[in-house]
Amino acid sequence: MTRTVSIHSYRGGTGKSNLVANLAAALARAGQRVGVVDTDIQSPGIHVLFGLAPDQIGRTLNDFLWGNCEMLAATYDRTAVLGSCTGSVHLVPSSIKAGDIARIVKHGFDVALLNDGFQQLSRALDLDFLLVDTHPGVNEETLLSIAVSDTLLLIVRPDRQDFQGTAVTVDLARQLDVQDANIVLNKVLPGMDRAILSARAEEAFGIPVLAILPLCEGLLSLGSESIFGLSSPDDPYAVAVSAMAARLLR
């Protein structure tokens, strides 16, 4: 049975895609078969972290949504970039072509097809986890991704705007009857009291804090060249993400 995990943030710049990539790698290295779908169709980018160059991308999620192919035809096995690994990672990127993005923005797509694609991919690849990298904010595809999730991870920075916006998303998740919603506090500065920050978040949102991830200069310096946890597994950020993966496995 595939566990669908949507990773969402109310605002951009929270480190969501880096977290998705590092979490996928940690789960795969723990022996899991992991699918990753980039539903941030208006500003895709997670393919960069998995070393998938533009000239390597043929079919994309866009093609599936427009009825041009099955979801599996838009899926790329990226396990090789993880090095020694007992699991696997399979990525469905969104198109980075300006014309395709403009078409989505102007005409949209049948959002219900997303869920069909998730199920197709999960069955075809016998996935243990399906990670959905959502578009920031609230729109139709985000609501669907949240609604079909077994687990929702809401990425929040210790920032007043993030807190207020995330509260809206938490309310929507309750209305959509999401049973397992969690907060992930990201980009936490070294001097911040983590116990106080965690208590503040749980009081504000009424859901548990799954993880607290430190602001990571090494991750910023890497500039999305690759998946940070693979080259720096002992960094506090990578250790915290691995602990997240272990909690999801439990």
TrEMBL record:
GO biological process terms, semicolon-separated: negative regulation of cell division
SUPFAM superfamilies reported for this sequence: P-loop containing nucleoside triphosphate hydrolases (SSF52540)
A Pfam family this chain is assigned to: CbiA
Gene Ontology CC annotation, any one: cytosol
Annotated CobQ/CobB/MinD/ParA nucleotide binding domain residues: 6-219
Superkingdom of source: Bacteria
This protein's name: CDP-3, 6-dideoxy-D-glycero-L-glycero-4-hexulose-4-reductase
Organism: Immundisolibacter cernigliae
